[in-house]
Specification:
By secondary structure, the chain is mainly α. Helices cover about 80% and strands about 0% of the residues. The chain is built from nine helices and no strands. It is elongated. About 35% of the residues are buried. The model has no long low-confidence stretch (mean pLDDT about 85). It holds the Pfam family BPD_transp_1. It is found in: Cell membrane. Belongs to the binding-protein-dependent transport system permease family. HisMQ subfamily. It comes from Streptomyces hesseae.
């Protein structure tokens, strides 16, 4: 227990770093995922191609490699940001590909007749998607989106290898101070458990309220 009590501020700083990474990267992933899902079902061919390339490239790229590309590659093009923002960008873009596919699968569950009926009433693609299709798709994608964001929270641990303050990175300092590596990792695991269970609880509430009855 002294590992936690003696280093509570260190754990707290790492925990808050993980929470910040998770929250901001999740918001970015949700926005980009929604945009790319809209592109993938759009009637414009170039948008569909762009969405497909985005998803294909990011889903098949190791996250660590993407971190290297963003944190070490972008500064070479004159884009200099704090490492935390680079980490949020890498996590958000990577996860957006999975959010996109979850949303697209939900969109595909909506009967095509409803979209056709909306268009026959003179509604545009944007109006059909926003007022008819997405509200119904949202109900079926709550569980997979929640699982994807839980994975994002755990993936944030990679950021610690790139000088970003987060929970897993605290073990380096604790190890240098001579604390038990086993107990250091146990308390780190507890911190991640708090984050993931919080996300799970939030999406359980959303599912009970708006989810599809099974």
């Amino acid at each position: 227990m002294n590992v936690l009590t003696d280093n509570f501020s260190l754990y707290g700083k790492g925990f808050l770093g993980t929470v910040e990474l998770t929250v901001y990267a999740s918001l970015l992933a949700l926005v980009l995922g929604f945009v790319m899902a809209s592109f993938r079902v759009a009637p414009v061919g170039s948008l569909r191609v762009f969405g497909t390339v985005w998803v294909t490239v990011l889903r098949n790229t190791p996250l660590t490699l993407l971190f290297f590309a963003v944190l070490l590659g972008l500064p070479r093009f004159g884009i200099v940001l704090p490492f935390q923002l680079f980490a949020i960008l890498a996590l958000g873009c990577y996860t957006s590909a999975f959010i996109c596919e979850a949303l697209r699968s939900g969109i595909n569950t909506v009967p095509t007749g409803q979209g056709e009926a909306a268009r026959s009433l003179g509604m545009t693609f944007r109006q059909t998607l926003g007022a008819v299709v997405l509200p119904q798709a949202f109900r079926s994608v709550i569980p997979p989106v929640g699982s994807t964001l839980i994975a994002l929270a755990k993936n944030s641990a990679i950021a610690g290898s790139f000088s970003v303050t987060e929970l897993l990175g605290t073990y380096k300092t604790l190890n240098e101070l001579g604390y038990s590596i086993v107990w250091s990792f146990i308390w780190i695991a507890v911190g991640y458990l708090i984050v993931t269970l919080s996300i799970s609880a939030l999406f359980n509430v959303l599912e009970k309220r708006w989810g599809v009855a099974r």
